[in-house]
Amino acid sequence: MQRPTRIPIFGIACLIFGGLILLQNFGQLGSALIGPDGVQAPTANESSGQMGNAMRDTTLAIQAAMKEPIYRIGMGLKAVVSLLMAGALIAAGVGLLRGQSWSLRLAKIWAIYAIASGVVVTALQSVYIVPNMPDNPAIPGMAGAMYFGMVFMLVLMCIFPLLLIFVLPSRKVTAYLNRSSNEPAPTHLEAAPAIRDQPPTASHTPASPPAHPPVSAADQTWRDDPWNAPESK
Predict the structure, then answer these.
(1) What is 123-164 written as a DSSP string?
(2) What are the φ and ψ backbone dihedral angles of 120, each rounded to 5 degrees?
(3) Which pLDDT score is estimated for 139?
(4) Consecutive H or E run containing 221
(5) d(Cα 121, Cα 113) in Å, to the nearest integer?
(6) pLDDT tens digits for 179-229?
């Protein structure tokens, strides 16, 4: 059975996304452990202009949120679990490339977790970061833009998990993965076919000795003692 094209595509995508998620959550875990001091404030040059003011206000809001124990602990736990799930996503990618049926279930588990964690992070940010945004007359409606940006990022984050749940497990993919997992591993040495007993052919049958005519008593006596053989009439 030929391997469907979407299996290597999703397998490679799982490896790429898994590596990126590992790097991202290592940074989030470090920020949660360090606290507000782990959030780097923009420099004077970066703070100039409207975009610079937005970056400065966002950094100040994140620093204020990191002072809240619930937000800090929640983001730290999310980073730890996401590191483990990123490893599961990488394992699912390897399993897809090797044609293992368990990789499909593992990819679905990660997808469900990714959607749930995205919703939780968006809720934490909307509760602890957006209210801490300073009022800046130069940037009206900054809080509304933050809400829109968080929802937009949540939608983007859910695209790949939704593809894993609804697009990857097609009938061909499921049949191929189940068939590949049920096939026995090939062996290098194969048993030799059994040799059945066959009746001997004419070429293998030994030749029977030629039949001799019956010997009379007189002839037998002559053979044993030719001097005392009876005279022939």
Answers:
(1) HHHHHHTGGGPPP-TTSTTHHHHHHHHHHHHHHHHHHHHHHH
(2) -65, -45
(3) 66
(4) helix 217-224
(5) 12
(6) 855 655 444 444 445 555 555 555 555 555 555 556 555 555 555 555 555
DSSP state of 36: G
Count the neighbouring beta carbons within 10 Å of the beta carbon of residue 76: 16
Separation CA 6–CA 10 (nearest Å): 6
pLDDT tens string 65-84: 889 999 999 999 999 999 99
Alpha carbon distance 88, 14 (integer Å): 10
C-alpha 14 chain-centroid distance: 8
Phi, psi of 169, deg, nearest 5: -80, 65
- As a whole number of angstroms, the distance between CA 133 and CA 11 comes to 41
| Biggest distance spanned by C-alpha atoms of the chain | 160
Per the CB < 8 A criterion, the answer to whether 124 and 74 are in contact is yes
Looking at the chain, how many residues does it have? 233
Give the amino acid at 101: S
Cα 160 vs. chain centroid, distance in angstroms?
15
Angstrom distance (rounded) from CA 18 to CA 92? 10
Q: What's the pLDDT band for 116 if we cut at 50, 70, 90?
A: very high
